[in-house]
Design brief:
Elements (H helix, E strand, L loop, with lengths): L5 E3 L11 E4 L3 E6 L2 E7 L12 E7 L6 E6 L8 E6 L4 E5 L4 E6 L6 E6 L6 E6 L3 E6 L4 E6 L5 E6 L6 E6 L4 E5 L5 E6 L6 E6 L21 E2 L14 E6 L3 E6 L4 E7 L22 E2 L7 E5 L5 E5 L7 E4 L13 E8 L5 E7 L3 E6 L4 E7 L5 E6 L6 E6 L4 E5 L9 E4 L7 E6 L6 E6 L4 E5 L7 E2 L8 E7 L17 E6 L4 E4 L9 E2 H9 L8 E6 L5 E6 L4 E5 L4 E6 L6 E6 L12 E6 L4 E5 L1 H6 L5 E3 L4 E3 L6 E6 L6 E6 L4 E5 L4 E6 L6 E6 L6 E6 L4 E5 L15 H9 L37 E2 L2 E2 L57 H4 L10 H6 L4 H16 L5 H9 L9 H17 L3 H11 L2 H11 L4 H6 L5 H17 L3 H10 L3 H10 L3 H11 L5 H17 L2 H10 L3 H8 L5 H13 L3 H17 ...
Parallel strand pairs: 46-50
Antiparallel strand pairs: 1-58, 2-3, 3-4, 4-5, 6-7, 7-8, 8-9, 10-11, 11-12, 12-13, 14-15, 15-16, 16-17, 18-20, 19-22, 20-21, 21-22, 23-24, 24-25, 25-26, 27-28, 28-29, 29-30, 31-32, 32-33, 33-34, 35-36, 36-37, 37-38, 39-40, 40-41, 41-42, 43-44, 44-45, 45-46, 47-48, 48-49, 49-51, 52-53, 53-54, ...
Length: about 1300
């Protein structure tokens, strides 16, 4: 591996529509937590041949909360510009070359969900938030435009690459709109079809709609989705295609020229290698899209389990796709993909970069669809680093996202050859330790007290010790077994045992051969061997000397104890540190000076590192323990607690330390000289490790979710920053979130908390959330899956905060709002029992007697004079005027004299509270005097009555209480708290007053609830309330609720009328049914008829008949509607309709055989049971009695025009004259013949006579026959004449 720095960055943020982007030339950026990481890809990365050509080159730092969106400028000449949006409410424009902010705005009032840099306008950035507000920002002229399109949550938006004014927006509920920003956000198309979150929008790279062979005939019936709105035509003449991906598992292609969907691609369920389909994949889908600019007939999408698909759009009906990396095992993402972005390198190679929930950034070759390289990332704090002494170069990293990383730092082909281990972990990995001799054997400890062993060369789950620590595992160490484990035979015990130190202060010895067996607490052996009767100290650190003969234990009181095998005889106690010991490290044995192996370095919660030389003590092996109080060397320079120290395996006496001051420091320990200082982290360092092969290379991990590989020769600083230059203070000032901190609870810890303890867990550090939050985004639904390394809620180990011990700095990435949970302690801190009064600075309560107190803090002379005046006043038989004046002046002496003087002191103190705006303190003083009534009167006059004062009022008497409640109710009314005022009136049984108060202030619902609960059912006040509220609701158009009010007031007629006010079919039907229920038959019939007429306008014949059949009186109308339905169907079939009818017909309206009149007769007989002459006569009478109502607002316009209006005689004469003149111009042949409708009427009359003999007058029958014989000479009439006239 080359001599180059490396960075394992934080994971890209989850659940963001656009959080990564790239520009031509090979620059890629992705948002991670509160910043953006920049990666150079391609030849410009400067990597050695044979390794993947990419390098993390920098970070954009400035936001104080999660970055929710990131986009580059894709305009030539300004590829160096990019924009970010954040949960802190700002949109920032950056220059990536200088890594500084060019400009920013904070226009959004709500959480920003996405943004995009317009590909057509150089300085336009469009952003949208969760309340539906869109801002267009032109940064060159610092101008902005506010658009509010829909009151919905925006999930994504994309500016058109073809038209500078078009923007497509996707919403949480599945709606997609295309707007024109030049027309104040006018909606050009509203595309409906998706029914869940829109995750991604991609415009077709080519304008027009000729690139895809899609036409209306090819698309399925399901795909023909209109936009549902009559909208203006898009300003793009040729239109364009648009692709959208949604959580509903579909990709839809839309035509902008047609404003509808033209293709639907449903995601396939791909069977995972080695297993079936995860049953929860449907809930864990994120569907992101990329439409390649050089392949407009291809579309790339994500799929359920992290796979990437390339869809072939040339044949829409085949739904053909190609799976990325189909031939390579394990190259795909293992979890859902969030973002895809294309990148063209300097050598014109086309790449595609993807970010995923599996915390990998992958690069794909578009030509082969194979994975080029993978950049791993971290989703939690880097707690522990450990190099293997067997597999040289294998670096194990314990991370707070529940996974162990093993980084092969010597890989020649891959600079980031990292494997993830997650099985059986399920918690933050806080401690790691490789077996000294066994290959691939890695011990790990977690924050929930679990200890386990991983075989990194197999895929087997780890072995877990059956003995758990009660709290977080701080340290693991391999060492020789001690009794009772060492008492077995040679074949019955391992050569090395695993020792673990936990947050409860216990060190356990585990048998790696039998982890299922019980682990032993070494305290029992220590107590027995050394005959210790007193309580043993709480252990916080363990470290074995390299030869395995000496064990060092660090304790929470700052002491370090040195024990000798085989029975852990205590030979030495070091009393140097005075705070909790965090780290101990023994010097290696293979240096040029063997005596250096007796050097032991240690760090604690103070900032000083001590080195002790234990050669003399160990070699002499004293009978009684020796106490050491002076160090061999002292290394001072850090400004915060020391978290980790490590000796260089390549040098004699060279040490590296990690500290909460945000730096790692290399020391020449023998000369006590600082050599170099690394400041590349943005958080508090938690661990450090020296490369076993490269003397210049060191690895460090911190709470900024990063692991840095850095070179000592490349550092600009030689010592840690001092004072206010501390990187922690600077970061706190620049990056600390602005949210108000929660009140800190007093810690109840009984055991120490070690140094790595962070103020809240790292997943919660980005966003307040009771559940685990990874990379600033909660991922609740998948936490139960075995594949999920994130912590479930019950295991999220937040820690109590102890700022005095932690030094006055905190991570800039952590919000103050965290879940406090003392059940699991993540790391070690000072015990609260040392200085409980300084652990949390409680705000002191305001004094009730501040003036008296201040007078007791005057000069000594004044206080002496007080004593003399008081003695004179107490013991003189008669007070002269001078003494009385002095006592009056020194009113604070009232505490020591008589009651009158005390009252005067209380009055003066109370007046002072009122002047300073603290009436509640004045009230308390008056209560001390016993003047409760006076307190109430004063508070009422000043409008300062409170619930507490009113609650105490009964102590002054019943009438005082009544008066106080009424006064408080009036005060509440002035403060617009009418409901609360009414509740207080109820407490003194003033029900009518409470109801009237609520009614007069339009709280009808509350007033009715009280009246219904407290008054008699027949009380007229209740009916008045119903009617008043109903009137208001009716006026405001809330007809259904108004109807309920009228029903409550037993005004059923009014309820039916108000329901019918809306005039639609559903309302009329409900109103008619309601009227029928309450016995208003006439009203019910009229409403049913209106309902049927409304349904008739929509050609709903079935619904119309159902509405009419509820009432026997409407049978005549039913006959008419039946005739109209048959006639409508007849006309549609014979003449008018060429396409499919949209009308709803009855099943009996299907036959087309026979004359129309016979069909009508047959239907009437079958449906209405007209069998006897009496029934015929009754039906005929009902038809004659039909009276059509006058025109209403629902009457069609034509019907209104045909209504007969009364005419004056001159007007009627004029019209007749005009009609005669027109008739005079008709040809003589027409004048000689009657019009055809006369002959048809004759036929109808004769038909009626044939069915109903005797119902037609003989004279009328004869006239009809004569007209037919005289004028019915055509073929049509002649056939019927022979039937009726013979």
């Amino acid at each position: 591996m080359g001599q180059e720095p490396r960075t394992l960055p934080p994971s890209p943020n989850w659940y963001c529509a656009r959080c990564s982007d790239a520009v031509p030339g090979g620059l890629f950026g992705f948002a991670a937590r509160t910043s953006v990481f920049l990666v150079r890809v391609g030849p410009g990365a400067g990597e050695s041949p044979g390794t993947p050509p990419f390098r993390v080159i920098g970070e954009l730092v400035g936001h104080t909360e999660r970055v929710s969106g990131f986009t580059f400028s894709h305009h030539p000449g300004q590829y160096n510009l990019c924009a970010t949006s954040s949960d802190d409410g700002t949109v920032k424009i950056w220059d990536v070359e200088t890594k500084t902010v060019v400009t920013e705005h904070a226009l959004h009032q709500h959480t920003i969900s996405t943004l995009h840099w317009s590909p057509r306008v150089k300085d336009l950035i469009v952003s949208g938030d969760e309340k539906g507000v869109v801002f267009c920002y032109w940064f060159n002229r610092n101008d902005s435009q506010h658009l509010f399109i829909e009151p919905r949550t925006i999930f994504c938006l994309t500016c058109s690459p073809h038209h500078e004014d078009l923007v497509a927006i996707g919403y949480k509920d599945g709606i997609v709109v295309i707007i024109d920003i030049s027309k104040k956000g006018e909606v050009i198309h509203r595309l409906r079809g998706h029914d869940d979150e829109i995750h991604s929008i991609a415009w077709c790279p080519l304008p027009g709609e000729d690139c895809l062979s899609i036409n209306q005939e090819e698309t399925s019936e399901e795909a023909e989705i209109t936009n549902g709105n009559a909208v203006a035509q898009a300003p793009v003449t040729k239109g364009c295609y648009l692709a959208t991906g949604s959580k509903d598992q579909t990709i839809r292609i839309w035509s902008c020229s047609r404003g509808r969907g033209v293709m639907i691609l449903k995601l396939p369920f791909l069977k995972r290698r080695g297993g079936g389909i995860d049953p929860t994949v449907k809930e864990r889908l994120w569907l992101t899209l990329h439409w390649p600019s050089n392949q407009p007939t291809q579309l790339v999408s994500s799929c359920f389990g992290g796979e990437l698909l390339q869809w072939d759009l040339t044949q829409s009906w085949r739904r053909k796709y190609t799976l990325f990396s189909a031939s390579s095992e394990g190259q795909n993402h293992s979890r859902i993909v969030f973002n895809l972005c294309p990148l063209q390198t300097e050598d014109d190679k086309q790449l595609l970069l993807s970010t995923s929930m599996d915390r990998d950034v992958k690069c794909w070759d578009v030509a082969t669809l194979e994975c080029c390289w993978t950049l791993p990332s971290l989703g939690g704090f880097a707690y522990s680093l450990a190099f293997s002494s067997v597999d040289i170069g294998s670096l194990a990293i314990g991370v707070g996202d529940g996974m162990i990383r093993v980084w092969n730092t010597l890989s020649i082909k891959n600079n980031y050859d990292v494997k993830n281990f997650w099985q059986g972990v399920k918690s933050k990995v806080t401690a790691l330790c490789w077996h000294p001799t066994k290959e691939g054997c890695l011990a790990f400890g977690t924050d929930d007290g679990k200890v386990g062993l991983y075989d990194t060369y197999s895929n087997k789950p780890p072995q877990i010790s059956s003995t758990y620590h009660k709290k977080t595992v701080y340290t693991l160490a391999w060492g020789p077994p001690v009794p009772p484990m060492s008492l077995g035979g040679e074949g019955d015990r391992p050569s090395l045992a695993l020792y673990s130190c936990g947050g409860e202060g216990i060190v356990l010895q585990h048998n790696p051969w039998k982890l299922s067996g019980e682990a032993f607490d070494i305290n029992k052996l220590i107590r027995d061997t050394n005959s210790i009767k007193y309580k043993l100290p709480v252990h916080t650190e363990i470290s074995w000397k390299a030869d395995g003969k000496i064990m060092a234990l660090g304790n929470e009181d700052g002491s370090i104890e040195i024990f000798q095998i085989p029975n852990l005889k205590l030979i030495c106690t070091i009393q140097q540190h005075h705070k909790l010991v965090n780290t101990i490290s023994w010097h290696h044995e293979h240096g040029s000076q063997p005596e250096l192996s007796y050097l032991m370095a240690s760090g604690s919660n103070n900032a000083v590192i001590y080195v002790h030389n234990l050669k003399t003590v160990i070699e002499s092996s004293p009978e009684s323990p020796v106490t050491i109080t002076e160090p061999y060397r002292t290394l001072s320079g850090h400004t915060a607690k020391i978290t980790s120290v490590a000796w260089s395996p390549h040098h004699d006496g060279r040490l590296v330390s990690a500290s909460y001051d945000g730096t790692a420091q290399v020391w020449d320990a023998l000369r006590e000289e600082p050599l170099c200082n690394f400041r590349g982290h943005r958080g508090r360092l938690l661990c450090v490790a020296w490369s076993p092969l490269d003397p210049d290379c060191i690895y460090s991990g911190a709470d900024d979710f990063c692991v840095h590989k850095w070179l000592t020769s490349m550092q600009d600083h030689s010592r840690p920053p001092q004072g206010k230059k501390s990187i922690e203070l600077e970061k706190k000032r620049l990056s600390q979130p602005k949210a108000k901190p929660k009140k800190k609870k007093k810690p109840t810890l009984r055991t120490p908390v070690k140094l790595e303890s962070i103020d809240g867990n790292e997943e919660e550090s980005m966003k307040e959330n009771s559940g685990p939050v990874e990379n600033g985004v909660s991922d609740q639904e998948g936490e139960e899956q075995a594949r999920e390394p994130e912590l479930p809620c019950g295991l999220a180990p937040a820690v109590s905060r102890e700022p005095v011990i932690c030094t006055p700095v905190s991570s800039g990435f952590e919000k103050s709002k965290v879940t406090i949970n003392n059940k699991v302690i993540l790391l070690k801190k000072e015990p609260p029992k040392e200085k409980p009064e300084t652990l949390i600075k409680k705000r002191k309560a305001r004094s009730l007697l501040p003036l008296s107190t201040s007078l007791d803090h005057r000069s000594k002379e004044e206080l002496h004079q007080d004593c003399l005046v008081l003695a004179t006043a107490k013991h003189s038989k008669e007070l002269n005027e001078d003494v009385s004046a002095e006592v009056e002046e020194r009113f604070h002496l009232g505490l020591f004299t008589d009651r009158a003087t005390l009252y005067r002191m209380i009055d003066i103190e109370g007046k002072g509270h009122l002047e300073n705006g603290h009436p509640e303190l004045f009230h308390q003083l008056m209560l001390w005097k016993g003047d409760l009534k006076g307190v109430l009167q004063t508070a009422a006059e000043r409008g300062e009555l409170t619930d507490n004062l009113v609650a105490m009022a009964p102590a002054a008497g019943y009438h005082v209480w009544l008066w106080a409640v009424e006064a408080f109710a009036k005060q509440l009314c002035f403060q617009d708290q009418y409901v609360k005022a009414a509740s207080h009136l109820l407490s003194i049984h003033k029900v009518y007053e409470a109801v009237e108060l609520l009614k007069s202030n339009h709280f009808y619902r509350e007033a009715i609830a009280i009246a219904k609960a407290r008054l008699r059912p027949e009380d007229p006040v209740l009916k008045d309330l119903y009617l008043s509220w109903g009137t208001v609701l009716e006026r405001d158009g809330h007809y259904a609720v108004a109807a309920k009010c009228y029903l409550g007031a037993t005004c059923a007629y009014d309820a039916a009328k108000v329901l019918a006010k809306k005039g639609d079919a559903a309302s009329l039907s409900t109103a008619a049914e309601l009227a029928a229920i309450v016995g208003e038959d006439e009203l019910s019939a009229s409403l049913a008829l209106r309902c049927a007429q409304e349904l008739l306008l929509a050609n709903n014949w079935v619904g119309a008949q159902e509405a009419l059949q509820l009432h026997e009186s409407l049978q005549g109308q039913r006959l008419v509607f039946c005739l109209l339905e048959l006639l409508s169907r007849h006309l549609e079939e014979k003449q008018l309709s060429e396409g499919k009818s949209s009308s709803s017909y009855h099943t009996w309206n299907t036959g087309t055989e026979g004359p129309f009149v016979e069909r009508v007769t047959a239907v009437w007989k079958s449906i209405f049971s007209l069998d006897t002459p009496e029934q015929y006569q009754e039906a005929f009478q009902k038809l004659q009695n039909i009276k059509y109502p006058s025109a209403t607002n629902n009457t069609p316009a034509k019907q209104k025009e045909e209504k007969n209006e009364p005419l004056s005689l001159p007007e009627l004469t004029k019209r007749l004259t005009e009609a005669n003149q027109r008739m005079a111009k008709f040809p003589e042949s027409i004048k000689a013949w009657p019009f055809p409708d006369v002959l048809e009427c004759c036929l109808v009359l004769l038909l009626i006579r044939s069915h109903f003999p005797g119902c037609l007058a003989q004279e009328m029958q004869q006239q009809a026959q004569e007209l037919l014989q005289k004028y019915g000479n055509t073929k049509t009439y002649r056939r019927y004449c022979q039937t009726f006239c013979t």
